[in-house]
């Protein structure tokens, strides 16, 4: 077996602080300001954490596709993102990227592959190291030196490549299933547009979205009950499946069941597209989450996924934005106004056809998500054993 050597992380990378940006430049311009919202416990990178930015900065704050950034702080013990990495996707290769003040940028100074470093920073050993270095109570923080002092072992370059290939084969399957689900979501939206927007029948009655969707339906959950909790930060902007949830004693917040759709009602989460379709609970189980969720559930026997599709429909979202009120930066959707969004009421034939087609798509997405969770468990279980040399699945 190839000899493994001990390293300090600071021997292979350097850590630099992000840019102390100007708030008035956020939300406009052709640059993208990367913030802590790009970092997730589960995902490699969240696009919702990148915001348009008009200002400029020193060259040392710019980043490129493939670069790694780390979260410098954490406001909840239940969301373990402190020191966690995000790797900038290739789709941002042509963008002007600025690393924001709440991130550290990782610069590779060695022959270690950036992807290898990324997965190293996802191992339990690294997570434990960060936890031991954490300071602060309300807001947990770490220093650049804390990160650079992380000690690990690694084999030579050829073996590191084989480890990456092993992890990457699982990760590629996960990405493929995510892309398939994204395609199925697009098909569902196309079906919705065809039947509810383009080919509406003259005999259909004019109505509002409140005729087809119940808003904030009654869900019962006794205070203090331990139940699945979903943070706003873990709603995706690109797929219906949230990235992470955990059990927590119910205090106050929105309540939901399988088949409900969660729509962010506060700026900028609404504009960013944060939406979820709930299918991760047990039968008849009630979960809960942010008070900033609008809970939607289909009526008139329409498939429950209808509420998600309309929540993602751009015209409906534009209407929701027009229903926002409140002070700048903390505006929220007025649900009573949102209920007035105009839509025709389909007949039973259209509902039956839509339900039949959409049920096939949703079943496939649900099966894909189950496979994704299984593959993630396999990958995450294998990762620390490969990265520590505990097991060797490789030849040579």
> What does the oligomeric state look like here?
single chain
Helical content stands at 25-40%
Cα-based radius of gyration, to the nearest Å: 23 Å
Structural class: alpha+beta
Order of adjacent strands in the largest pleated sheet: 2-10-6-8
CATH H-level homologous superfamily name of the largest domain? DNA methylase specificity domains
The main pleated sheet reads as:
4 strands, antiparallel
Mind telling me the CATH class of the largest domain?
Alpha Beta
The mean pLDDT is 91
Q: First CA to last CA: what distance?
A: 7 Å
CATH fold-level assignment of the largest domain: Adenine-n6-DNA-methyltransferase TaqI, Chain A, domain 2
Low-confidence runs: none
CATH architecture term of the largest domain: Alpha-Beta Complex
Strand content: 15-25%
* Shape verdict: globular
Number of domains: 2
Counting DSSP H or I runs of 4 or more residues, the number of helices is 10
């Amino acid at each position: 077996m190839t000899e493994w050597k001990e390293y300090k992380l600071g021997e292979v990378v350097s850590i630099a602080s992000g840019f102390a940006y100007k708030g008035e430049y956020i939300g406009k311009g052709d640059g993208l300001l990367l913030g802590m919202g790009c970092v997730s416990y589960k995902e490699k990178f969240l696009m919702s954490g990148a915001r348009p930015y008009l200002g400029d900065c020193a060259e040392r704050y710019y980043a490129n596709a493939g670069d790694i950034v780390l979260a410098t702080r954490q406001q909840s013990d239940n969301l373990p993102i402190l020191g966690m990495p995000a790797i900038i996707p290739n789709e941002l290769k042509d963008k002007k990227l600025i690393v924001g003040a709440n991130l550290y940028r990782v610069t590779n100074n060695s022959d270690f592959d950036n992807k290898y470093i990324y997965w190293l920073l996802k191992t339990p050993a690294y997570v434990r190291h960060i936890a031991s270095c954490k300071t602060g109570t309300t807001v947990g923080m770490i220093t650049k030196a804390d990160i650079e002092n992380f000690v690990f072992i690694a084999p030579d370059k050829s073996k590191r490549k084989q480890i990456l290939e092993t992890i990457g084969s699982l990760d590629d399957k996960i990405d493929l299933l995510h892309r398939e689900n994204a395609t199925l979501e697009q098909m569902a939206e196309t079906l919705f547009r065809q039947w509810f927007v383009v080919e509406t029948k003259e005999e259909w009655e004019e109505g509002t979205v409140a005729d087809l969707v119940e808003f904030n339906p009654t869900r019962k959950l006794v205070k203090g009950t331990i139940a699945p909790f979903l943070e706003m930060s873990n709603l995706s902007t690109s797929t219906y499946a949230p990235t992470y949830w955990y059990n927590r004693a119910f205090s106050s917040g929105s309540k939901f069941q399988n088949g409900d759709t969660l729509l962010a009602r506060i700026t900028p989460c609404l504009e960013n597209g944060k939406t979820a379709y709930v299918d991760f609970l047990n039968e008849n189980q009630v979960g809960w989450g942010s008070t900033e969720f609008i809970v939607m559930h289909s009526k008139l026997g329409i498939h429950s996924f209808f509420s998600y599709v309309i929540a993602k429909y751009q015209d409906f979202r534009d209407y929701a934005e027009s229903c926002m009120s409140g002070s700048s930066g903390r505006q929220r959707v007025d649900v009573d106004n949102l209920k007035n969004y105009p839509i025709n009421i389909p007949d039973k034939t259209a509902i039956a056809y839509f339900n039949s087609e959409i049920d096939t798509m949703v079943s496939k997405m649900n099966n894909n998500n189950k496979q994704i969770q299984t593959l993630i468990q396999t990958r995450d279980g294998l990762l620390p054993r490969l990265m520590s040399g505990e097991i060797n699945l490789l030849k040579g």
